Amino acid sequence: MIIYLVFFAAIFAINLLPVFAPPTWAALPFFVFNLGLSNMPVVAATAAFAASVSALLLALVTVKFVRPRLSAGSRGNLEELANFLRGRFWLAPGIFFLWALSPLSAGLLWIAYGLLGLGPRAALLSFFAGRFLGYWGWSYAVSQAAWQSAGDLFSSAGFISVSFIVSQVIALMFFGLFVKLDWRALLQERRLQFVGRQTLAGLMKQQEEKVLH
Known about the structure:
Layout: H1 2-16, H2 24-35, H3 40-66, H4 72-86, H5 91-101, H6 107-116, H7 121-141, H8 144-155, H9 162-180, H10 183-189, H11 197-212
Helix pairs in contact: 1-2, 1-3, 2-8, 3-6, 3-7, 4-11, 5-7
């Protein structure tokens, strides 16, 4: 039991880092071999639960401390996307499920979701399901040699390379685009543009009118 608590804490800590964190797909075999974990369904469930708790914490911290610091115009802009997702209750959970099946880090995705101020329950359940299937499938889909190589990659920090750093920088750039994208223009007018001062001023005015009404 204590070994699984240590494993849970390690995966939780890794997933709590939104960028430049070691990939969980490499951390899994490292801990499996070094902690002597053999029940792969339990390993996958523990890792998926740890990743989901980290995701929930990132989203809640963002809602509590980051979203209120945005300007009214920026919140109004993101509210356009939030309303779009509210009208399509299946879309956000579907995105999180498919994302969770991949080896991609989800930290920035959950921070972005927190900026929208949406309830995390459905998205979190689908994320857990995707991570569980992804981790369990990863443990059986690769050969023992490949599994061992992934663990060695984690222990030697071999995942840190130019391509890894570039991928993290690109992820940060996409996050910046997410915040700066004019979501009303994209969703209602099918037009790609970024939020300017005039757009922010108009959105800020709309937010103030909503508060007054």
